[in-house]
Amino acid sequence: MAGEILKATLETLYMVIVSGLLATLFGIPLGVCLYLLSKSVKFRNLYIVLDLIVNVFRSIPFIILVLLLIPVTKNVMGTIIGPNAAIFNLTIAAIPFMGRLSENSFNGIPRGIIDSSDSMGLNRSQLILRVLIPETLPEQIGNVTVLLINLVTYTAIAGAVGAGGLGQLAINYGYYRFQWDVVLYAVIVLVSISQVLQFTGGRLSRFFRR
Amino acid sequence: MTLILAVNNLNLSFEDKTGRRKILDNVSFSVEEGQIVGIVGLSGAGKTSLLRTLNLLQPVDSGEIHFDGKNIVSLREDEIRKMRKKIGVVFQSFNLFRNRTVLQNIAFPLKIQGMDSKSVKKKVLEIAGELGLNHRLRAYPSQLSGGEQQRAAIARALVMDPRMILLDEPTSALDPKTTGRILDLVVELNRRHSMTFIVVTHDMDVIKKTCDKVAYLENGKLEFYGPAHEFFVKIEKNEVRDFGTPLEINGRLAGKEGKLLRVLFWGNRTHEPVMWKVSKELDVSINILYGKIEELKHGPFGAMIISVEGKQQEMFIERLRNSVYSLEEVV
User: Which are the contacts of A142, defined by CB distance < 8 A and separation ≥ 6?
Assistant: First the structure.
């Protein structure tokens, strides 16, 4: 049993870390796009469309999204079960989430900081890489923390439809075979993972806050 | 003197719930290189908007802004970026980057230019030394006092060797002592680097200590633009709405036969006891009802309200008129 729990824990961590990494990698640029488009007059319509897409993806419950994505997942990943298929689903769900979180953080930058960047003659990529990202670094670390903890919960949900990991373990052994101790262990591990993430994220964020 | 800035027929309006609101109404003025110009007026008169148009941080509806020989209103985006590098801006709220040290903040404009780190360091240390920031280079903006933040912001604007610096309310966040030091610094920098400054302010100390010229805005219109002492003349004559004289003048102040005069002095004239001399010679009695003297950048400016009585009072008025900056009868 202990071996199974360890394996499931590693699977969960694998899913959370990989999808978290991918969602951050794509989500922050999405947030940058949302932020810049929302300020632009010329691309107003593009913002409205992108904003809608993000909202739609964020409002679909994860379990439904997994079902809707089955054909896509099958095409892209070659399978619809196992951690790798789940990573695809998790990433698709997490990118808009991360995009919105980081957009909000960019919106929190005082207008004066943007003015002063503009008045120095910064071009767009300098604005993004040297102002937007560094100025929101502590907030973005906080965002990634929230994202990862959400992903822990989501992997458990994905476990219900064959993703593997602690969620599946809890359902297979606990729910279907009435081994409630396994459910308890799975929950304890999930809570511990969230706690460690929250603690580390909080520390890291505070370290970068000036 | 060469013109560094010429603004012609500038118009700006904002759209809001109540409709279109005029912010700048046909504003025209020009600035000679190396001058310090103060922009004054009530809040909402358009001062900050005007300042923001000068490097196109605020796009305009119509009009021309010639800076350094080019009409910047018609520049392409990349040309605007290049133009902005020649204009330093110090904002009211300083706007230092929160996650960068003072050193990194001052170095920032140079770094994005791609200057090598050795030259950056040399330049930053030089400017920081000039502004007395050497001991604070490793601090973050949140650890600085208001005066230090202001100096860091000025340093960041100076580091690019701009032709012109725009200051938005440079003293509004500072205590009187720090204000004095910052103003001395501005005058000193202006003298040493013959850098042009445009200063938005509602602080009379800023105008007195630093400004060569004053632009007075009222409801988006440039109601006055000229030498600083002439602005003080307007203040004394109560022609400027929000800076009016502390004395309400009416006929009761003068004696039955006497006359009420407003006498203005400017420059070295304030040193001479003209009034005393003339009144003694012509045997008229004078009574000083109000008087003040201001130390302006280009010399002292004095204002008096006096009542004069005596047989030769007309003669007195004529004689005095020739030896003061301006004299008029007031009722």
Answer: A201, A202, A205
* Interface size, chain A vs chain B, as Cβ–Cβ contacts under 8 Å: 58
Q: Could you tell me if B51 and B198 are in contact, meaning their C-beta atoms sit under 8 angstroms apart?
A: yes
Contact B204, B9 (CB under 8 A): no
Residue carrying the six token digits 């906080």: A142
* Yes or no, beta carbons of A121 and B99 under 8 Å apart: no
List where CATH 3.40.50.300 sits in chain B: 3-241
How far lies B111's CA from each of A41, A60, B80, B118, B148, in Å?
Answer: 30, 45, 19, 11, 22
Task: Give pLDDT, residue A136.
Answer: 96
Distance (Å, rounded) from C-alpha A142 to C-alpha B331?
Answer: 70
In the block, residue with structure tokens 């360091």: B121
User: Over the stretch A92-130, which tens digit does the pLDDT of each residue have?
Assistant: 999 999 999 999 999 999 999 999 999 999 999 999 999
Alpha helices by DSSP H, B17-100: 47-53, 77-84
DSSP string over A155-200: HHHHHTTT--HHHHHIIIIIITT--HHHHHHHHHHHHHHHHHHHHH
Q: Does B85 sit within 8 Å of A121, measured CB to CB?
A: yes
Q: What is the DSSP string of A18-33?
A: HHHHHHHHHHHHHHHH
CATH number of the domain where residue A120 is located: 1.10.3720.10
Say whether B198 sits in a helix, a strand or coil: strand
Least Cα separation, residue B276 to chain A (angstroms): 55
Order of all β-strands in the sheet with B19-32:
B19-32, B3-16, B62-67, B70-71
Q: Taking CB atoms and an 8 Å cutoff, what residues of chain A touch B98? A: 113, 135, 210
Q: Range(s) for CATH 3.30.70.260 in chain B?
A: 251-329
> Taking the domain B251-329, which CATH number applies?
3.30.70.260
Count of structural domains within chain A: 1
For the B3-241 domain, the top CATH level (class) is alpha beta
**Amino acid letter, A108:** G
Q: Tokens standing for A163?
A: 């993703």
Put simply, whether the predicted model's pTM sits higher than 0.80 gets the answer yes
Contact B142 A210 (CB under 8 A): yes
Q: pLDDT-based confidence at B130, cuts 50/70/90?
A: confident
- The CB density around residue A59, as the number of other CB atoms within 10 Å, is 9
Q: What three-state secondary structure class fits B46?
A: coil
Q: Strand, helix or coil at A54?
A: helix
- Residue A159's domain spans which residues? 2-208
* Complex ipTM more than 0.90, yes or no: no
